[in-house]
Amino acid sequence: MRSAIELKIGEKAIINDIDNTNPSARRILEVGFTPGEEIELLFKPVFGDPLAFSIRGTLIAVRSSEAKCILI
Amino acid sequence: MLTVTDNKLPLITLLGHPNSGKTTLFNYLSGKKYKTVNYPGSTVEYSISRILSRFEFNANILDSPGIISLIPCSPDEKLSVNYVYNHPKYGKTDLAVVTLDASQLSRQLLLVKQLIECNFKVIIALTMVDILNKKGIDISTTKLSELTGCDVVKIDGRSGEGIDELLKVIRINMNLLNENNLKHTLKDYDKNKIISLYNDIERIEKDVLFNIEPVVKDNELINIENANKKLNVLSGLSVNGHRKLDKSTVNIDKIVLHKFWGLIIFILVMSLTFTSIFWLAAPLMDLVDTFFGNLSEITSNALGDNLFSDLISNGLIAGLGSVLVFVPQIVILFLILGLLEDSGYLARGAMILDKPLAKIGLNGRSFVPMLSGFACAIPAIMATRTIQNRKERLLTIFIIPLMSCSARLPVYALLLAFLIPQDQPFIAGFSLTAIYIFSILSSLLIAGVVNKFTSKINSLKEKSSFIIELPTYKKPKLDTVLKNTFKNANQYVKKAGPVILVLSLILWVLTTFPRQNTELTSDNLTASNSLLLQNDSLTLEEMDSYDLSKSYAGMLGHFIEPVMLPLGLDWRVGVSLIVTFSAREVFVSSMALIFKVTEDDDEGKFQEGILNSMREAKNEATGQKLFTTARIAGLIVFFVFAMQCLSTVAISKKETGGWKIPLIQLFSFSILAYIMAFITVHGLKFFGIS
Ligand SMILES: Nc1nc2c(ncn2[C@@H]2O[C@H](COP(=O)(O)OP(=O)(O)O)[C@@H](O)[C@H]2O)c(=O)[nH]1
Ligand SMILES: [Mg+2]
After folding, report:
1. Which residue among A67, B76, B182, B320 is buried most deeply as judged by most CB within 10 Å?
2. Within 10 Å of residue B384's Cβ, how many Cβ atoms?
3. Can you give the pTM of this predicted structure?
4. Is the ipTM of this complex over 0.90?
5. Which residue's alpha carbon is at the smallest distance from atom 4 of ligand 1?
6. Residue whose CA is closest, atom 10 of ligand 1?
7. What is the pLDDT of residues B184-209, one digit of tens each?
């Protein structure tokens, strides 16, 4: 399974699962990254990390070490 | 049922995500008569107030920092959550009013669901309905109320729309207060639980949202899409467009979060912020300066040449002037911080800086506290509560005193004015920017070194996290920003003012007594007595001939003179530096007092007066000029590093939970300051600049 950090800018995907072994999994879920939702990778500013995803009509920036647990 | 006669007033707690409109609602209900001041960046303190009497309602209302879940992730959130259950002072929350951003319904309902599950009595205050409407969507309060089981009211805390209705609902709920015990069942994390909650929420969302004809401007043609949306309402199709991002936000972010342009904009915003502190403030400061200079002269003339006149014009008015002269800079700094926060840029800045900051053991979330540190270290240290990881939080607190706070501005301004001719404000602005860049770079270096050092002795790896919502860009509401700015500036003057005034007066006494020229000494007279007695007996000449080095201040100065000599400075500067450890700003007034006493008094502007005295000051031993370019540069460097602020020590102790960190800060930064100043003075000498 691919993870969300492998998306290209402007690429959309549906969340398949959240990897529970990542310590940030809970917060990722709580802010709205739940299975079945569509996400889009929108921005990777200057230093290439964190990544800005569109989720549920909002922009959320997530470090790639944490976004790794979003499986698509 | 709780009534007014109960000794505990009912407590209404405002809850909700960050930026969902809690503080706006709170301000409307409380009339802004609350106790703590929120700082640009975030609500970090609980604010409490009675509901305004004009609403004819007797209850306490509590504003809280934003939480997104009842299961806390950081010490800050844990505190927030505990306070919701039981506030140490105001007790249990009787009624939770949740501000719910209607345009973010699905993400924000999670908290409502958790609250209901834990037996809280919940009222939903729907905010940002105007934004939802602009997306061509509306929300049914009756359906949402049916599906959640709580009362729902649409409000806009900015205009007060819907507040009467909200109060009516609150009143009804107050009368039905259940005495159910609150449940603490949410402590454990369960992945499937969150997912199933979200499934519920999505079902609710589909039921309550419906498409409407979007608010179109007159000249905009209703296109086919809009026509379709209208059809949807009629045919009862499910809602669409509610998951669309704000178009203009995405467009702006295409530049602001661009790989290259994003960096350029960031640098531009930061340099504009710092240069305008100097540029915009300079003429205003000049005005304040001239005013107090003239006032001091007028009073001195009116009262004649005597001790009392000296106390008023040199002690009191000069002290007051030194407090107020930097108010323009503080106002401008707070204004810009407020505008940046309100527009939504600060969250982007935090995101851009996260990676480099993480490299030195900090976090993107350190950015706002660090930036606030340029205004004042105290609220900045409080704002670090938003950093989840304890180590990152402590490191951020550790380096915040190195940010050049606004109390250092008058010092830099005075010292730079000494170095740079008046007719070259450009160079002055440039030098100030250079000082700031120098202080930022060295603080980052120190953070990196401390991080390396502490991770060696402490291998404990706590999880580091950066998940942050990037709010939609908003045109800042100028009146709110202005009000906040003036509140902050006012608070600042009120806090710093008395301290500086008292210190100026103490300093005046220390430099004026004991009076060995007359047979009267301060020992056998009270201050006012001696003033009356000496009113006519002392002439200006007598005062000038009077030897400062034999005063109490002189004794103190001579005591630390050995420390000052390596920097090429004498005991007079030493006295000024000693008093700055209570508050940096005092430097200006103490320099004014000390050098005005020893050197010829100068007419005209306050600052010009000090500068002239400083230019004429001679080293008493060698007879050479006391202040040279190298020594002034050394002093500037000293102020960049030294931790000269008692309030910062106090807040650092409070927020780190012990004396260890504040004491390390106090000693290491002050010793570092001395060493760096020494290197500067002698380094410049080596290169031929004396
Ligand atoms: N468009 C719109 N903006 C609002 C509304 N209520 C508050 N705001 C704005 O939303 C921003 C965040 O509000 P604030 O009260 O500070 O949120 P808090 O973080 O929950 O305290 C401010 O700029 C408010 O002016 C509303 O109903 N509609
Ligand atoms: Mg707030």
Report:
1. A67
2. 27
3. 0.80
4. yes
5. B128
6. B21
7. 766 666 788 889 889 989 889 888 88
